Amino acid sequence: MALGKLAYRPEIDGLRAIAVLSVMIYHANLGFLGGGFVGVDVFFVLSGFLISSIILEEGAQGTFSLLSFYKRRVLRIFPALLAMLVVCLVGGWLWFPPVDYRRLAGATMAAIGSYSNIYFYREADYFAPDAITQPLLHTWSLGVEEQFYIVAPFLLLAVLRFPRARLTGFLLLFFASLAFSSVSLFHNPPLSFYMLPSRAFELMTGAALALGLVPPLKNSRLAEVESLTGLALILISAAVYTDATDFPGLAAFVPCLGTALVIHANTAGRTMTGHVLSTAPFVFFGKISYSLYLWHWPFLAFAIFRYGAAIGPVERIALLAAATLVSVLSYALLEQPARRRGARLPATHVIALGVAAILACLLVTKIIRHGDGLPGRLPPAATDFVAANPVRVNLANICVNTTQALPDNAERMDCTIGKPNTPETFLLMGDSHSEALAGGLAAIASANGMAGHLLTRGGCPPLLDLERLSVPFFNDCVERFSRMATLLGPNAITTVILHARWAVYDTGHPTANEPQEHLNSLGDGDPGTNRKVFQAMLKQTVETIRATGRRVVIIAPVPEAGFNVPLEMTKALMRGEDDRFPIERPIFDARQKDVLSFLASLGAIDGVKVLYPHTLLCDEKQCRTSTGGKALYIDDDHLSPAGIALIEPLLRDAILK
Q1: Rounded distance, CA 100 to CA 90, Å?
Q2: Among 586, 581, 570, which residue's Cα sits nearest to residue 627?
Q3: How far is the CA of 217 from the CAs of 212, 263, 270, 486, in angstroms?
Q4: Residue 84 and residue 307: Cα distance in Å, rounded?
Q5: Phi, psi for residue 202 in degrees, rounded to 5
Q6: Is residue 324 a contact partner of residue 300, using CB atoms and an 8 Å limit?
Q7: How far apart are CA 339 and CA 356, in angstroms?
Q8: With contact defined as beta carbons under 8 Å apart, do 636 and 587 qualify?
Q9: Cα 280 to chain centroid, rounded
Q10: 53: left (phi over 0), alpha (psi -120 to 50) or beta
């Protein structure tokens, strides 16, 4: 087994520099290195190599101690991390509305508790445009590494005890992780991106070198070729990958392999590539890379949250420069002193201090979360606005005649609404936009002694026969809408209401400020065929429902703001600025022109009626997003209770006529 790799190797600091600078350029969106996120994968390989080397070296010498190992991890990770978390909480206090401050507190808890990757798997899309306004999103990678630190000692010590199983055990775990990453990438991309099992092969790529599974090179020329090839794989990945690259999976193995090649080629002696990576600029950025990784993202996140994504490249470069300055101070005043002075302390004392810091941080974040983001810190106008404007659709008590427990932001509904113990006479089918209307319909139905059925799921267009598209994203929709066969059978339902975010399904993509993924595409990812498929399927759905003798009501599109309305209004009130953000009518018309024309053609079918929310929300010049100090939306495209109140005449028309 290859040991003795613990001497300082400056080219590894050079690799750290490439990794962190790639990530910074990518995050700053400077127009190049669209795949700079692979810098994180370079870090994973380096961590796998270095941590495995330490454990194997000490384990072979009989000096390994779990307490000492975790003491070093605490001293390495916690001082700069805690400082960054505290600064972010202060920044959030000053600039974040309550909903975002509460979310920041949750992310802080996850970061200090080493489960950021799990938290953001549930909460965030790393590649979404609004991801940059979440100051702690980048800590997901720390969660992966810290979870690796938990399992690595036991696995590597087992290798020392059972050396004959070293290669077999490694290959089984490596290929299991790579297979899991590749398969889950197409079935559950966030799971593949964030979770340790799908990233373990990257850390194990570095561990393979520490385990001595790759024989050393004795030919210096081959070493030169290997080192240059490795660096090229890293740089090419950073240059040619984009947010649309299927990642991680096999694509992630390319920069990982490149990193391993550079490490391996420079083990016996330094190559020319190694000499370049060992020069002062690379070593400088490599030494501060941990602090730089921690600090650069919050600088960008707070600035973009405060001033908008339109800040230019000069401002972004200035932010990175400021983050670099703070990182130098963090390295000199926090990282280095903590490691030097902490080395003299007993492991139990260091770990106890770490636990105390965690508990203190958890206490602060619990106060913020239980205080619902502490709205009392805001100016009075902003406090009043927050109190009067929900930021989610509350569906907790909407269902009757059911024992099903539902959260207040349920993504799927299949229940009776309106007056209990009353035959259902209408059916509302659609996506989350239908759910937004459900409360208004339920109130009208209850007041008129009626009941209806709610059959919805977020992201699911109200179309029958979705299964014929073979689009994995729609598998849950197919399951949900399979209930239509029963609901369209003999019963008291006389009206079927269809509503959705029609433009998404018509065009195959959301608004410009949202992720341009074809998750909702009906044309198998081809926008050119999307409209044709959508229109044919909606017409067939309407005709199928009409064939049962029922009336069909189609509620046309709600104007899409393209920005989070209550968030922007709150931010404006916090700054004492104008809180009105209307949608220009030409923007609505351009987005919805084809949809409205097609829906009008369906309205010409006997027994089909189309109702138009924009006639109540828009005039000839603008579409309102607020009225009387209340937001008409809970986000960028779902109507709030105030918005629903404005279109109540339309909803009454849907079920009472």
Answers
A1: 13
A2: 581
A3: 12, 12, 12, 69
A4: 21
A5: -70, -45
A6: no
A7: 18
A8: no
A9: 36
A10: alpha
Report residue 391's pLDDT band, with 50, 70 and 90 as the boundaries.
Answer: confident
Using alpha carbons, select from 653, 623, 619, 649 the residue that is nearest to residue 637: 623
For residue 529, with 0-12 CB atoms within 10 Å meaning exposed, 13-18 middle and 19 or more buried, which class applies? middle
Instruction: Map out the domains of the chain as residue ranges.
Output: 10-377, 412-557+582-612+645-656
Instruction: Check the CA dihedral 149-151-157-162 and report its sign.
Output: negative
Instruction: Evaluate whether 323 touches 87 at the Cβ level (below 8 Å).
Output: no
CATH assignment of 412-557+582-612+645-656? 3.40.50
Where do the H-state alpha helices sit in 493-548? 502-507, 527-546
Cβ count within 10 A of residue 129: 16
Q: Give the C-alpha distances (Å, rounded to integers) separating 577 from 320, 465, 580, 628.
A: 28, 49, 9, 16
What is the CB-side half-sphere exposure of residue 222 using CA atoms within 13 A?
Answer: 8
Which helix (H) or strand (E) element contains residue 630? strand 630-631
- Distance of CA 230 to CAs 2, 15, 134, 226, 266, Å? 21, 11, 33, 6, 11
* Cα diameter, the chain: 87
> Which residue in the block uniquely carries the two structure tokens 């390994």?
64
Examine the pLDDT at 1 and tell me if it is beyond 60: no
> By the 8 A CB rule, do 494 and 439 touch?
no
What's the rounded Cα separation, in Å, for the pair 639 and 631? 9
First to last CA, the chain: 81
- The predicted-structure confidence for 192-228, as pLDDT tens digits, reads as follows 999 999 999 999 999 999 999 999 888 999 999 999 9
User: Radius of gyration (Cα) for the chain, nearest Å?
Assistant: 28
Highest mean pLDDT out of 524-528, 570-574, 613-617: 613-617
Residue 567 has which token pair? 């968030």
